[in-house]
Amino acid sequence: MDAVRPTWRRLTERPEADVVIVGGGINGLATFRDLAMQGVDVVLVERGDFVSGASAASSHMIHGGVRYLENGEFRLVHEAVVERNSLLRIAPHYVRPLRTTIPIFSTFSGILSAPLRFLRHGGGAPKERGAVLIKVGLVIYDSFSRGGGRVPRHTFHGRRRSREILPELNPDVRYTASYWDASIHDPERLALDVLHDARAAGGEKARAVNYAGVVAARDGGVLIRDEESGEEVVVSARVVVNATGPWTDLTNELFGAPTQFMGGTKGSHIVVDNPRLLAATAGREIFFEHSDGRIVLVYPLKDRVLIGTTDLEHDMHDPIVCTDAEVDYFIELVRHVFPDVPVEREQIVYRFSGVRPLPGHGDIAPGFVSRDYRIERADLPGSAGRTRTLSLVGGKWTTFRALAEHLSDRVLGELGASRRRSTAGVPIGGGTDFPTSPRRRAEWVERHAGAVPAVRVQELLARYGTRATEVIDAIAADTTDAPLASAPAYSSAELRHLAAAEDVRHLADLLLRRTSLAFTGGAIAAAEEIAGVVAPVLGWDDERTTDEVAAGIAAVRAAEPSDGADARRDAAATAAS
């Protein structure tokens, strides 16, 4: 392994570009991909790992935003529905249709209060939305899918039929409404596919470096520091894009141009291993209004259940953790719809928390803050007007492609360049030629099985889409490949390939973002074994490997409040492995 990593070396050898993008979340990465496809010389830097900030704390939904209709955000809902339908086509390996069911406790509630809530931006006491109001909303929502819709229209059921479908449902539920959105099974991996495609499209003109943070505006450019070595370099550019999400104001402060664009709210989730609750959902997302008016969800995913989310004001200088009070809230909200299904703290296998990159909103209630986005333009301090900054305010997972296209068009305008092609309809990563029917999947597996057994090939196709061919080749070439004792669904050659090919710098990168081990609750038990497997690839000695295990476990537990019980539980899990 090189003493200086290749991605950083390429940056220091040619410290200039047309565009520097600061922030490696999904919107920064998507803009990087779009500009690379236009032939723009573009650099992306991310202080931590790629897709490790707000983009790593999503509700795993690709949705049109039915609840945004109440806010009057019709443009956003239309764009989101179009993008949802598109992602089902261009990223079918990770984005799949999701039946969503709303339990409804009343018929007419909310009809009079909904207009007032809209006019007051959510002010006043919460009032439950009844069947009539939800029906109207879903009819409007369905209308946005006309002409190219990829999901069925909504259905309504009364109490008896609802209980037949969901036997554990609260008997006080009078109706259920079911509609279709989409789920994103592996958000981090989809983002890494976007990064992969950007580099493939741009070649040497598309450079991306993780663990490289902005320090300041300097000499008409951006001073960037390698967060591992401490080395610094000034990179000059004609346009600097600030895509740091909820940290946008803090990044502009580093540039010497303080702003007050942002007003993000914290959203937390827990993941539980609860077979009874998993069965109670009947394979669908349960999406409903809790007693405090907050829209929440109970969502089956990867044989676990995701429960969320909160919407709390947050100061970006403070730690971002899922508090014990939020956990209590999640357990209580499950009782609201499945009162006889117990959920215990001991069943929590993972918790995570992030801050939505929302605009500043004053006295507007968090649930009524716009989820739309805008772009703010300024001059980079010290550049004598030669370098523009474009700060992205807002944005969400569902609309990342359309947002990136809009932002890229603004960048192209600043450069005096024209768009060569649209990203609309362009497959992403392992979604290229992905076999979407059982017959075609079987044919794909048969073609690629051989040195790697068909059952394993099928697993890899589900995990990586058609980019599984890269992993299959790596496994076939590694005679020492074997399943991990602590995580048999993964193998040693597979993880060595990820470590070598996907910008992995730390064990946490593998546990949290290159695999699903943290989400499913297997990361801590597997940490030591995985570190030993990838240490030779990453050039770690025994001391570094030990340090990475400790840091990796701490990263998995980062969203939890610190206490002695956590440390004791981590030690017990590691010993058990």
How would you describe this structure to a colleague?
The structure is a single chain. This protein is α+β, with helices and mostly antiparallel strands and 577 residues long. The chain has helices at 6-13, 26-37, 74-90, 113-119, 131-143, 159-165, 187-202, 248-254, 275-280, 324-337, 400-415, 438-448, 454-464, 468-476, 492-501, 507-514, 517-520, 523-538, 542-556, 564-576, and strands spanning 19-22, 42-46, 61-62, 95-104, 155-158, 175-184, 206-210, 212-218, 221-226, 232-236, 239-242, 265-272, 285-289, 295-301, 304-308, 312-313, 348-355, 374-379, 388-393. Helix 13 crosses helix 14, helix 14 crosses helix 15 and helix 18 packs across helix 20. The longest helix is centred in the N-terminal third of the chain and has 17 residues, at 74-90. The relative contact order is 0.14. The model is unreliable at 115-121 and 564-577 (pLDDT under 50).
Measured as a percent range, the helix fraction is 25-40%
Mean pLDDT: 91
Number of helices: 20
Structural class: alpha+beta
Largest pleated sheet: 10 strands, mixed
- The first-to-last residue Cα distance is 29 Å
Using DSSP, what is the number of strands? 19
